[in-house]
Automatic annotation (TrEMBL):
Highest taxon above the source species: Eukaryota
Family per similarity comment: Belongs to the NAD(P)-dependent epimerase/dehydratase family.
Catalytic activity: UDP-alpha-D-glucuronate = UDP-alpha-D-galacturonate
Lipid bilayer topology: Multi-pass membrane protein
The protein's name: UDP-glucuronate 4-epimerase
Keywords: Isomerase, Membrane, NAD, Transmembrane, Transmembrane helix
EC class of the enzyme, as a word: isomerase
Assigned EC number: 5.1.3.6
Location in the cell: Golgi apparatus, Golgi stack membrane
Transmembrane segments: 34-53
Record-linked InterPro entries: Epimerase_deHydtase, NAD(P)-bd_dom_sf
A Pfam family per the record: Epimerase
Coiled coil location: none
Length: 485
């Protein structure tokens, strides 16, 4: 067997050629000028291929993306994206074209994510221009993101595949479209995962955000930016309900720390460059098309499977609770923030006057204990959960969240209307709908359509629902039928 490449010594001097079993073959090859010519021709053609197809100016992202994936091994699924060229630019322009008379043109980062998909669809529906950007990373099953992408494509939203750290790509997007707004939702989400992969939080939530702001500050005109902060910035704050004026300097997780860093970075770019910036502190958002890493989602799956559910409890049997917020309410808050965002004041990378800087809580103002969340799911699923009550692990979770939303109410007209019981009902119905052919109800129907209940005639309740949750976006089931309608 030939030696494995890894076992070859790095210094050529140590390579003992005369002991090689291939010595005669190599010698013959060495002496044959035609073989030599063929060999060098292949090398030459290979170099030409690499030069023209991998790093041509029409595809500069290949250089920066492949560099970033090599320089950051902690980041999963950062790969070489291809973009550029007249056909690609045309798609970008079409997607971002404003159709309503007073519409805006928005670059939505993280558009294949949970909130990003809903916000993009809502903007498109009302006639705004929307261009998506997403790196389709594998923090959770990317095929879910592909299904959301297919859904958006049907309503005319093109998602550019790329990373927010790719400066050349971002610059190109602003060259092609004069975006009035950026809805920045691309982030590494999840509180507990930060202990496993801290680098991905720094990469997306800090480096990526700075990169985006750098491009926005130089864009002409500068866009107004609305971006996703998090309720987790309140960290160990004990004063409830959480108000925007409360202290946020005690984050309990690296995730929270990166979101808090984002808020400080926003301050800097507003102060120096006159960028209009609005941070939205989302409170545990849930609903149809949600994230499989979130408790309500995997609790549903595990209850149906008969697996036990770990329910966290604070010391002395203290209640752990969240201000769970339904996705449609969050979307309204996002649109309210975009609509009330003032223009940035910078030009040519320089500030010309003071610009708007805001932070809002977007919660439900009604915290629910996690054990009650499980009780609601039991009723909806008609299955008793196997509860395993355990101590809140030291992994970044906080005991309690509760939003004071009066500021958002006043400034954005934000008014949540969905309680946890109704929202989870819509989530469970959505999972059921995935199983049968009338899923077209979910497509192009917008806010109501996403959560609309459909009929499921031959539905074997538990088994079918479980199948839907486990395989909701594979190519054989729901995905094909719903997307290709
Ligand atoms: O509000 C936010 O800013 C954050 O909301 C969620 O974070 P979290 O509230 O921790 O949401 P889940 O992971 O769905 O947990 C919900 C509740 O279930 C509890 N839980 C979670 C997991 C588990 O196994 N058992 C359990 O009792 C958690 O302690 C928490 O109280 C999102 O995952 C974050 O990305 C987001 O930024």
């Amino acid at each position: 067997m030939p030696p494995h490449p890894d076992s070859a010594p790095s210094t050529p001097g140590k390579f003992k050629m005369d002991k090689s079993p291939f010595i005669h073959h190599r010698l013959r090859w060495h002496l044959n000028p035609i073989a030599k010519l063929i060999f060098w021709s292949f090398i030459f053609l290979g170099l030409i291929y690499m030069f023209f197809f991998r790093s041509s100016p029409s595809n500069p992202s290949s250089i920066s993306s492949s560099f970033s994936s090599q320089s950051d091994p902690s980041r999963r699924s950062l790969r070489t994206f291809s973009w550029g060229g007249p056909a690609w630019e045309k798609r970008v322009r079409n997607s971002a074209r404003v159709r309503a008379s007073n519409g805006i043109s928005v670059l939505v980062t993280g558009s294949a994510g949970f909130v990003g998909t809903h916000v993009s669809a809502a903007l498109k529906r009302r006639g705004d221009g929307v261009l998506g950007l997403d790196n389709f990373n594998d923090y959770y099953d990317p095929s879910l993101k592909r299904s959301r992408q297919a859904l958006l494509e049907r309503s005319g939203v093109f998602i550019v595949e790329g990373d927010i750290n790719d400066q050349a790509l971002l610059k190109k997007l602003f060259e092609v479209v004069a975006f009035t707004h950026v809805m920045h939702l691309a982030a590494q989400a999840g509180v507990r995962y930060a202990m496993q992969n801290p680098g991905s939080y720094v990469h997306s939530n800090i480096a990526g955000f700075v990169n985006l702001l750098e491009v926005c500050k130089s864009a002409n005109p500068q866009p107004a930016i609305v971006w996703a902060s998090s309720s987790s910035v309140y960290g160990l704050n004990t004063k409830v309900p959480f108000s925007e004026k409360d202290r946020t300097d005690q984050p309990a997780s690296l995730y929270a720390a990166t979101k808090k860093a984002g808020e400080e970075i926003a301050h800097t770019y507003n102060h120096i460059y006159g960028l209009s910036l609005t941070g939205l502190r989302f409170f545990t958002v849930y609903g149809p098309w949600g994230r499989p890493d979130m408790a309500y989602f995997f609790f549903t799956r595990d209850i149906l499977k008969g697996k036990s559910i770990p329910i966290f409890e604070a010391p002395n049997h203290g209640t752990v609770a969240r201000d769970f917020t339904y996705i449609d309410d969050i979307v309204k808050g996002c649109l309210g923030a975009l609509d009330t965002a003032e223009k940035s004041t910078g030009s040519g990378g320089k500030k010309t006057g003071p610009a708007q800087l805001r932070v809002f809580n977007l919660g439900n103002t009604s915290p629910v204990p996690v054990s009650d969340l499980v009780s609601i799911l039991e009723k909806l699923l008609k299955v008793k959960a196997k509860r395993m009550v355990m101590k809140l692990p030291r992994n970044g979770d906080v005991q309690y969240t509760h939003a004071n939303i009066s500021l958002a109410q006043r400034e954005l007209g934000y008014k949540p209307t969905t309680d946890l019981q109704s929202g989870l009902k819509k989530f469970v119905s959505f999972q059921k709908c995935k199983l049968q052919s009338t899923v077209d109800l979910l497509v192009n129907e917008g806010e109501r359509g996403f959560s609309r209940v459909c009929k499921y005639p031959s539905f074997k309740f538990k088994d079918d629902l479980l199948h839907g949750i486990e395989n909701p976006w594979n190519s054989t089931g729901f995905d094909k039928r719903s997307i290709e309608l």
